[in-house]
Amino acid sequence: MSVPVAPSVERRRRARDDGGPWPHLLLAWPTLALTLLFLIPLGTIAALGFFRRIQAGFFEVGFVTSNYARALDGFHLERLAVSVLLALAATLITLLVAVPFAYLLTRRPRRAQVPYLVLVLASLSLSEVIVAFAWSLMLSRTSGISNVLVMAGLMEAPASWSPGLWAVVLAFVFVALPLAILSLYPTFSRLDQELPEAAGTMGAAPLVGFVTVVLPLVRRAVAATAALVFIFVLGAYVIPQTLGRPAHWTIPVHITDQAIMKNHLPLAAALAIVLLVVSSLIAVAIVAIGAGRFDPSRSPRLAAPERAR
Amino acid sequence: MSTWLRRALFTLVVVYLLAPLVVVAGVSLNERQVLFFPPQGLSLRWYGAAFTDPSWYHPAINSALVATFAALIAVSIALPLSYVIWRYRVRYANVVMAMGLAPFALPPVITALGALALWIVLQSYGRPYTVALSHGAFLTTLPLATLTVGLQNMNPQLVEAARTMGATGSAVFRTIVFPYVRPYLLAGFVFAFVLSLNEYIIAYMTVGFTFETLPVKIFASLRYGYSPVMAAISVLFFAFAVAVFAWIGRVGDLPRLLGADETA
Question: Which of A5, A26, A38 lies nearest to residue B80, judging by beta carbons?
Fold first, then answer.
């Protein structure tokens, strides 16, 4: 802050900014709540992965590696690969729609944006259960869009597309799209309105201007959004469970299955830790790509405006 | 980019987001207990059933209770935390902040499994308050995000002026900071409320069928017997969310609440 303040006032302000016991008192409840409800559960999962399962679905404290051995066996590694590929595909499709949409939306007057924002927020808040239900109806034989296509004379007979791979991907994109749009929204709406115009004045076609001028400025935000969407989709349970065949069941389906149906909490915990490590590594890689490491062709001149921001 | 391209893309997104709900709305109007689209015969009886059948309105009441307490807990964590970060320099506050933002950086199933493990260890599995507490911590990210935006948007000279005039810390909070961030606080509360209302996997792993929430009930019906009531409830959920956010859009500045800057 650059407001000039008299020395005595400045000293008083400093003294208050210390706050004495106040900040600590204020922080007591947030610290307690988040430690109990976030940190300890995470630590408990990490420990549980090493515990021994005993009959009747319970577990006892111990140190065995058999849970991790099973979490990393051929079957679960294949499930992990399927989960990651599905999530990456959904993330890519989502970004291809969300990035131009969020950009064009933020170029509109504020008032015109509101109905779209309401729709996006309402879709974002829609339960994964309702999304899975809606898409299972959409893609079913009796109530799906194939009936509409038959009525329009575009198809011979109604067909069932759920459960199936595309059902899972379409529903993943449906839940990821609102999240991506809202995550991109702040950066895009703070983007200088005149930049693309300047590019246009200099003779760049709109699409060229978008790719060469706008995208380099927002690549960090796009990468952060990609990481967010990837993790969110990778952790989804209801959609792959309901809309996928067993071949499309992702790791969360097996985690939930082990934790609730098979009462094998230690294995569920080991699977969760494996999922956590893999998802974090990929998310960090996505963010690093967005920051421009791993990209030798990137010219330093293009990187400059973002740093200056 | 050209107007034509923008219109095409906007139409695509709107159709994609609304088409499943149009089908659900159509299915909810079937006269008999079938899930046809287009519907056969027209009837609102399934909407009636949503309010009169206890196997549906009990979960609805449970969900409303959980969402209210979860949103209160989320806000009670987010307000002091974001205020301390903005106002004071306390080193460990950033660690607490990271814990508040972290749940959205974890696959949701892991948060849910953590909650299950915690409440089993504490021998409280299935108690109604467990889901409210776990939802509250999970969703605190939302009021944290809106409040951080709000505090950053506030003109620091206002606070400076008040302090120079001799206002104490608590007076500054009561008369300047709190009134200014109130819309952001309300938006954060509403976001947390609506998301808790719709959350499935944490509710399933903490209370499951012992304190059935609506998403858990819908999922059970999804697996063990479809009914048009599910469609009616889904339509009501979506209509409720649209109404809430449209209301915020009317009384408040939705673009600003979502992070567009003050000017322009």
Answer: A26
